[in-house]
Design brief:
Helix content: under 10%
Order of helices and strands: EEEEEEEEEEEEEEEEEEEEE
Number of strands: 21
CATH architecture of the largest domain: Sandwich
CATH topology of the largest domain: Jelly Rolls
Shape: rod-shaped
Structural class: mainly beta
Oligomer: single chain
Number of helices: 0
Largest sheet: 8 strands, antiparallel
Number of domains: 2
Strand order of the largest sheet: 9-21-11-17-18-19-14-15
């Protein structure tokens, strides 16, 4: 049989097939798990076109892309949107941001009212923390009210449920009692608990404001802790709400009996989950 010397064949590896690349004869590409060799110059013709390509090596039919290079640190591997190959990607992590909305120092003169405006389009959760070094005005407590476009909501629509515990010389430290008023007949939410006065030097309040429900009813959780230098401790944890269905714009804190909010600190935090 006669033999014909066609010389040496040279293949050029071009990696993954790209429809925008101009290929020439003997270029080899990877496509859908198999390798193909160009029969002639071609651009935009899939390797499955027998007029332009020959099968060079048949893959297993899987989706592994033999031309896939390693990704960068912290990237993950997934199937591409076309379901034809694997690709590396950088996962998106949901961001949680906490902003200090305001920080208020209450001096001895104090203020008549503290108002926090809650914007639920930018924050998903709010918290108010109050720290009173010397008691916020002698022998007076603090009340909270939700606010709407008209100001404080003073109607008798507030209710609460929770528990409290006292520890003094005259109260058993093992006592844990239920506190509640579920009738919705209150015109405010009481923030401090029993024993709040100027002699109790370290009151600590924590108010967690929850996003209104679908009927615009507003809820919050209050935690109150008080102690002095000797034998007094008090702890309250209560869930409070209002049945008022107007659109809420914020919350106000006011001293009972026109008392001032003084000698302490108020920190408001806004939480964002994206």
């Amino acid at each position: 049989m006669a033999q014909i010397d066609i010389g040496k064949l040279s293949f050029t590896h071009k990696g993954d097939y790209d429809g925008s690349t101009a290929y020439v004869a003997n270029d080899v590409v990877y496509y859908n798990g198999s390798a193909y060799i160009a029969k002639t110059s071609t651009t935009g013709n899939l390797p499955t076109s027998t007029a332009h390509w020959n099968t060079f090596a048949t893959g297993s039919g899987g989706i592994w892309n033999a031309g896939l290079s390693l990704g960068t640190g912290s990237q993950q591997l997934r199937v591409n949107s076309g379901g034809s190959a694997l690709e590396f990607f950088t996962p998106t992590v949901a961001a949680q941001n906490v902003d200090i909305i305001n920080y208020t120092t209450l001096d001895a003169t104090g203020v008549n009212q503290y108002v926090l405006t809650t914007d639920w389009t930018t924050n998903n959760y709010w918290k108010i923390q109050l720290f009173g070094q010397y008691g916020m005005d002698a022998n007076q407590g603090i009340k909270a009210r939700w606010r709407n476009a008209s100001g404080d909501i003073t109607s008798s629509t507030y209710a609460y449920i929770g528990y409290y515990s006292h520890a003094t010389e005259s109260h058993n430290s093992d006592t844990l009692a239920l506190s509640r008023d579920l009738n919705g007949g209150l015109d405010n939410m009481n923030i401090n608990g029993w024993g709040f006065n100027s002699a109790r030097k370290y009151p600590d309040f924590d108010i967690q404001i929850i996003k209104p429900d679908i009927n615009n009813r507003q809820h919050m959780h209050k935690r109150y802790l008080n102690q002095d230098n000797t034998v007094y401790f008090a702890h309250y944890s209560e869930y409070m709400w209002s049945s008022d269905t107007s659109v809420k714009t914020g919350i106000s804190l006011t001293g009972n009996n026109s008392a001032k909010l003084n000698n302490g600190f108020i920190i408001a935090l806004g939480y964002k989950y994206q």
